[in-house]
Amino acid sequence: MAAEVITIPRAALHEQVAQRLRQMLVENRIPPGAKLNERELCAALNVSRTPLREAIKMLAAEGLVELVPNRGAIALALTEHDVANTFEVMAGLEALSGELAARRVTDEELAEIRALHFEMMAAYTRRDLSAYYSLNSRIHRAINAAAKNPVLTTTYNQVNARLQALRFRSNQDGAKWKHAVGEHEKMIEALSERDPAAMRDVLLAHLTHKRDAVLELLREDVTAKTPSKARR
Q1: Is 28 left (phi over 0), alpha (psi -120 to 50) or beta?
Q2: Are residues 93 and 14 in the same domain?
Q3: Residue 226 per-residue DSSP state
Q4: Residue 184 is part of which domain span?
């Protein structure tokens, strides 16, 4: 008996490709400033150019890549000034999300966030950064969703997309990663107690520390790329 052939709709295919490209960008497999080579990506993802180009357009609309005339798609590269400004906005969005979520979260939503936190802690124990970061992002998105403000969610997603790769890299420092985990435990505690002020404070602190870690990484990158004679 012949196997049934299942056709994947084009829309579903290019969305799947976009998700895989996001992960490659976040995990620095496509570094900031790098050109997205269509031929290589088609081979790596086993897709044709049409869904790949549609996926790249999606990422351009999200601000993850830039479409440069005569060069094609380039992975977003943020300057130190860009990062500081974006984190300033992100801190406000995260804090407001936490404050509203503490007031509006349902028992079911709280149970789901706690379950994600336990999974995230297991990934941290294994030092599985990829799984940890995926679960971490889901927790932040779940807190934002629990705020139940669609305008806030739309803005949050747009701004957060610009910072994903940098937030991922900031956890590669063991001490900073451990500190971030401690702040997540405080988030769960404040959310469980439905304490808006505590949620606002811990998320503001969390984003401030994340900003500082990211800026430190960027400065280290600049130093590493500067010829030794110029650093003397």
Answers
A1: left
A2: no
A3: S
A4: 80-224
